Amino acid sequence: MLKTGYTALTVAATSAMLSSAAIGGTIEGTAAYRERIAVPPDATLYVQLQDVSRADAPSVTLSAKRYALTGVPAQFELSYDDALIQEGMRYVVRGSIFQGDKLLFTTDTAYPVLTNGAGNTTDLMLVKVQPPGAAVLENTNWTATGLNGAALETERRPALSFANDGAFSGSGGCNRFSGQAEIAGNNIEFPDNMAATLMACPPPLDEVERQFFKALQGVTAYAFKGDTLVLLDNAGQSVVQFAREQ
Question: What is the span of the domain harbouring residue 111?
Answer without folding.
Answer: 26-128
